[in-house]
Design a protein that fits this description.
With 307 residues, the protein is of the alpha+beta class. It folds into 2 domains: 1-117 and 264-307, no CATH class; 121-198, no CATH class. The chain contains 7 helices and 10 strands. The strands form 3 sheets. Strands 4-5-8-9-10 form a 5-stranded antiparallel sheet, with helices on one face. It has a 3-stranded antiparallel sheet with strand order 1-2-3. Strand 9 (280-291) and strand 10 form a beta hairpin.
């Protein structure tokens, strides 16, 4: 009797071990299945993302090629470029130069006149100080001194801690990219991001309030936001061509040295092309070009970035 009980107990133990082994194998198989399913889904997602990005890239290239051709056979007006041809999907020969987006299906295009921005190569210090003051938490005086030290080989700012430039050194020459402005003492990435759309190193010939964004109008003319908005409202149906008009609007005049051109665009243009999917950017081209009166070489590319 005791032998029979022991045998029965051993059978139960063997069954228990087999059950545990089956459960362990099932857990492993299920885990492998879930992992494989996740890998497949991630692969399919990555493939779809690559497909969308490729489609966005092709749409961006297509619209950029048409846009550059339209620009190459165009003439400037105070507020826009007037092209001799209209290529689909564009519906007008007039291309605004104030940075507003021309919207198509899944693509948006923006052109910005360099004379509507603040040039940081040889900046109007008051305008740049105002821009920093109104849009960032940086100390304008510290940043301006640090920037001057960055681009001037013979100037050293004693207020900059010696340890600040331990990862890179000041350029001590005119900048190659405007992003260098984010590297100087006193600036942060957040500060730079707040003003990057309003500054440029493209060559400009003066200041054009017809194409300037509201923050640039405020900084360059030292006016309030309501006054800048008043200018923008006026520009919907009119063009500012003289100091008299500007003074009538906001009681301001521009300094007019003989070698500068005001109230008219520069030949330098910032172009932004955005390819969209469900209204979200999936591909972007940023190009700064210099338009030339030469059909053999109608423009020079100053800057080109795709991302």
């Amino acid at each position: 009797m005791s032998a029979f009980v022991r045998c029965k107990s051993a059978v139960r133990k063997d069954r228990g071990s087999a059950t545990l082994l089956v459960m362990l194998l099932a857990t492993v198989i299920i885990s492998l299945g879930i992992g494989f399913d996740w890998i497949v889904k991630e692969h399919m997602k990555a493939t779809r993302d690559l497909e969308l990005k490729t489609e966005g890239m092709l749409r961006s290239y297509s619209i950029m090629d048409k846009l550059l051709y339209m620009i190459s056979v165009s003439e400037f007006t105070p507020k826009a470029i007037n092209s001799e041809v209209v290529l689909k999907p564009f519906k007008s020969s007039l291309l605004p130069l104030d940075g507003t987006y021309i919207k198509f299906k899944d693509v948006e295009v923006s052109l910005q006149d360099a004379n509507g921005l603040i040039n940081i190569l040889a900046p109007n210090q008051e305008a740049l100080r105002n821009l920093l003051k109104e849009n960032t938490k940086a100390d304008p005086d510290i940043v301006l001194k640090a920037w001057y030290a960055w681009i001037n080989p013979n100037y050293h700012d004693e207020d900059i801690p010696s340890s600040f430039y331990n990862k890179y050194l000041p350029r001590k020459y005119l900048p190659q990219y405007k992003e260098e402005f984010s590297l100087v003492y006193g600036m942060t990435k957040k500060d730079y991001d707040a003003i990057k759309n309003y500054i440029t190193i493209m060559p400009n010939t003066g200041f054009n309030p017809n194409t300037a964004p509201i923050p640039v109008l405020m900084a360059r003319l030292n006016i309030t936001k309501p006054q800048a908005e008043l200018i923008k409202e006026y520009l919907k149906n009119h063009t500012i061509t003289s100091d008299d008009e500007l003074q009538a609007l906001v009681n301001r005049k521009l300094s007019l040295p003989n070698y500068r051109i005001y109230y008219y665009p520069s030949n330098a243009i910032r172009i932004i092309v955005l390819a969209l999917h469900h209204k979200k950017p999936i591909y972007k081209i940023h190009a700064d070009i210099l338009k030339k009166a030469n059909l053999s070489f109608p423009y020079t590319v100053l800057y080109w970035k795709e991302y």
